[in-house]
Amino acid sequence: MAAFRTLRTAGLALGVVLVMAGATRAQTILRDAEVERALSELARPLLNAAGLSPRSVRILVVKDSSLNAFVLNQQTIMIHSGLMLKMNRPEMLQGVIAHEIAHIANGHLTRRMQNMQNAQTAAMIGLALSAAVASKYPGAAAGLAMGTQGSAQRVFLGHTRAEEASADRAGMRYMARAGIDPGGMVGVMEKFEGQEVLNVGRQDPYVRSHPLTRDRLRAARNLAATFKQIKGTDPNSAYWYDRSRAKLAAYLQNPSQTLRRLNASDKSDAALVARATAYSQSHQIAPALAAAEQLIARRPEDAYAHELKAWIHMEARQFNASVAAYARAVDLAPNQPLLLAGYGRALLAQNTSTSNVKALEVLEKSRIRDKINPGMLRDLGLAYARAGNDGMASLSAAERYALSGRLKDASIHAKRASGLLPRGSTGWRRAQDIVHAADAQKKRKKR
What is this structure's pTM? Predict the structure, then answer.
């Protein structure tokens, strides 16, 4: 699966993902404001070194224990949680990011777009966006239905050996230019050394989509040796690397395992985040809040520390406290869409006339900044319904179904929205876009 073009459905710029005939599974994307902030901090110096705007590319985490990373489109890099947790130091994770940035900067997606027509004869291509929601993750929001079928997957995700060598060279230059040890990329390759001799079913997906040969590894080692030796890790990169991996591991692992692993003497911010997450996952609200409060006391201007507290209260159904904590988080980061989405959900949970009006306001603001968040669209639909705007409530439902690839259901709600909204209005046009996309899919299936 891979992005091959940008489709405007319901007025949204959405990356299109392939669902191959016979696809057997969908993969969840873990949307979390803190983790995405960490990845943006790790990527920022590399994007600057590549001549790309840090605001133009975002990195999302796929909930998958296998090791993989790939470019979804010109604006999105996907990293499997398994790969993120397997990286031993920040420079290795930045090596992965630098390599994928190089694929974007070097225009390697263009070839796939040009070859898309040929691939249509080999596999049925369907629309699939956002298949599952990780609703219990702080700020969790979206998923992509990404079918996996060997040959078709390799056609779209796979890079040629020439592209891989090019991305290695460019990525290492970006790392050196940013003051990051290029040996981190070599360390990633060494993780996969020897996998080429395994049969395809036993290989990590990263090796299948990023062909690794002995010659390529040798060339990478030689290239890394040519750069001036860079000693030490940037403290900011180390901080966000530790904090994001601690949170991700605490969410994905059994809470008791996380708590046993943490050293009682470890009072770092990363340890506090891990403890708060693990305690909340095991419904131990008091110690979870205590850890979050320690983090806030240490970093009172950290929006993500306040979000962590808000999420714990929300999980405990302490809605008033959750609203207060989310309000503080949004004060500190007023344009962060996942924080706004969480704030809106907490306000809806309060369910007062005042909170419902405020919820609609903040959820609309969240949608403007992040249109591919089905959890936000669900809550936005509820907010519209409580405001008596059934047309926009139906439109939100239609957009949410469209994101999950359920265009038949999306069309039903979009047609209802079209009948309720003023003809020619922005909302009406968004609804019509969904109806047309559903009709086009129906025609493709008949062929």
Answer: 0.83
Provide the number of structural domains found in the chain: 2
First-to-last C-alpha distance (Å) of the chain = 22
pLDDT band at 250 (very low <50, low <70, confident <90, very high): very high
Residue 390: exposed, middle, or buried by beta-carbon count in 10 A (0-12, 13-18, 19+)?
middle
58-63 and 76-80 as β-strands: parallel, antiparallel, unpaired? parallel
Q: Which of 197, 226, 255 is the last residue of a domain?
A: 226
> Which pLDDT tens digit goes with each residue over 44-102?
999 999 999 999 999 999 888 988 898 877 888 999 999 999 999 999 999 999 999 99
184 in any annotated domain: yes
Q: Give the span between the Cα atoms of 338 and 345, in whole angstroms.
A: 11
Query: What is the domain extent for residue 81?
Result: 6-226
- Which stretches of 301-425 are DSSP H helices? 303-315, 319-332, 337-350, 353-369, 374-386, 390-403, 407-420
Instruction: Count Cα atoms within 13 angstroms, Cβ side, for 268.
Output: 15
